[in-house]
Amino acid sequence: MLRNTAKTIMIALCLGGVLSPAASAQPENESVKTLRLATREFIPPYVYENADSGIEVDLVTAIFRDMPFDVEFVQLPRIRMISSFEDNQLDGILTQNVTASTTGCPTEWYIEHQNVGLSVKGRGVQINSLDDLKNYAVISFSGATRYLGEDFRNAVRGAKRYTESGDQGAHISLLYKGRFDVVVGDNWIMRLAQKRYFDATGERMDLVTHPIMPPSQYVARFHDQSVCDAFNTALKNLHENGTYAEIWAGYRARIYVEAGLDSNQPH
Predict the structure, then answer these.
(1) Pairing mode, strands 115-120 and 207-210
(2) Domain 33-112+217-259: which CATH number of 3.40.47.40, 3.40.190.10, 3.20.20.140, 3.30.70.270
(3) Which end of the chain has fewer beta carbons closer than 10 Å to its terminal beta carbon, N or C?
(4) pLDDT tens per residue across all 267 residues of the chain
């Protein structure tokens, strides 16, 4: 009887030793802050439906894996992303030109887009520099004059016609129909949009790529400096351990096949 009682006590003590750390860790987990981050709507290959995947989503998720925060992606149009962050409705905002705002603190750049000009082959569009855009009707994404810098802003100011539109998927249709001579946007975004247009309509025209600007590098912004600092540290670790390069390489291989891109094209 005494032997059984002693055995029961020993088991209880052992279980108590095992369970105590888990029990003490629970409040810690509950106290982890969730940061709500403004990100773009469906814009492959950077952000897919419901922000479940994409280059940007995967990069930011990997960065925050080494940080004491959970993240929630809030998909919004560009203008609402900015206004919601600046009104303190959200904790952070992604894909920002470092000079486009002074609200909060900017991180180090963590993602870049290779923006190019695209025109329909055979229509005689000659573009060798940004300055040549003045000779054509140009369409680009919403906020392009804010995000692509002063040189781009000055170039399109003198264009025959210049329009910005948030629906980049429609840019291919407008280009095919001759409503615009040139689309300016990220090469991968536009090539995947061209593939989706083909899948939907069966129509495809050969496009000429005009490499008229360097890659645009983007930062994230947060209201809390400690979050910016932790983001930068985690980003550095991501570069050093090879995860950053792996994410890009995986999407690059997939995009070249899906969009039928030549590996020598920009990006």
Answers:
(1) antiparallel
(2) 3.40.190.10
(3) N
(4) 434 444 443 333 333 333 333 333 334 445 679 999 999 999 999 999 999 999 999 999 999 998 999 999 999 998 899 999 999 999 999 999 998 789 999 999 999 999 999 999 999 999 999 999 999 999 999 889 988 989 999 999 999 999 999 888 899 999 999 999 999 999 999 999 999 999 999 999 999 999 999 999 999 999 999 999 999 999 999 999 999 999 999 999 999 898 877 655 555
User: Which residue has tokens 């645009």?
Assistant: 216
DSSP state of 49: G
Q: Is the dihedral of CA 134, 82, 187, 169 positive or negative?
A: negative
Q: Is the four-CA dihedral 33, 38, 42, 43 of positive or negative sign?
A: negative
DSSP secondary structure code for residue 113 in this structure:
E
CA distances from 95 to 42, 221, 253 (A): 14, 9, 23
Continuous segment of H or E residues that includes residue 35: strand 33-39
d(C-alpha 7, C-alpha 216), whole Å: 68
| Cα–Cα distance for residue pair 54/250, rounded to 1 Å | 11
Cβ(78)–Cβ(166) below 8 Å: yes
